[in-house]
Write a structure and sequence with these properties.
The chain has 126 residues and is of the alpha/beta class. The chain has one domain. Helices cover 27% and strands 26% of the residues. The protein is built from 4 helices and 8 strands. It has a 3-stranded mixed beta sheet, with no helix packed on it. The protein has a 3-stranded mixed beta sheet with strand order 7-6-8. A two-stranded antiparallel sheet has the order 4-5. A hairpin with a 5-residue loop joins strand 6 and strand 7. The longest helix is centred in the C-terminal third of the chain and has 12 residues. It is globular.
């Protein structure tokens, strides 16, 4: 049985035999694991047992553009959400182990995020 070590934060572009691969955890960037999921064709995310355990009490988001991860306590996130439908959705997921992939984050595209937030909070005049 051969093991291959993969160092890229998020492996893209090439399909590979992943049964024997060991990669660095995309969440903490510390642990190494063979536990992975192919989130899209050719995009592989590795998550170590410690980060899976952290998902019990935290919501975890992973930016699929730059690889940065965000870990926030579930209770804090739910209490800060103002949108009732979104709050309800997160409350339904409170007992789940969940790591969400996001398209972009404030670290990799701050201008685009700020533009989006401005459109969400701008007032409409008639």
């Amino acid at each position: 049985m051969t093991m291959r070590y993969i160092r890229e934060p998020i492996t893209r572009g090439r399909r590979q035999e992943m049964k024997n691969d060991i990669g660095q955890c995309n969440i903490c960037q510390k642990g190494h694991t063979s536990t992975h999921v192919e989130v899209e064709a050719g995009i592989v995310v590795y998550v170590c047992p410690e980060c899976i355990e952290r998902a019990n009490d935290n919501f975890i988001w992973l930016c699929m553009s730059c690889g940065k991860s965000y870990v926030r306590p579930k209770e804090l996130v739910i209490n800060r959400i103002k949108d009732h439908e979104l709050k309800r959705a997160y409350m339904l997921c409170e007992d789940m182990l969940m790591i969400q992939g996001i398209d972009m984050c404030i670290a990799c595209d701050p201008e685009r995020i700020l533009d989006y937030m401005e459109t969400q909070y701008s007032t409409v005049e008639c």
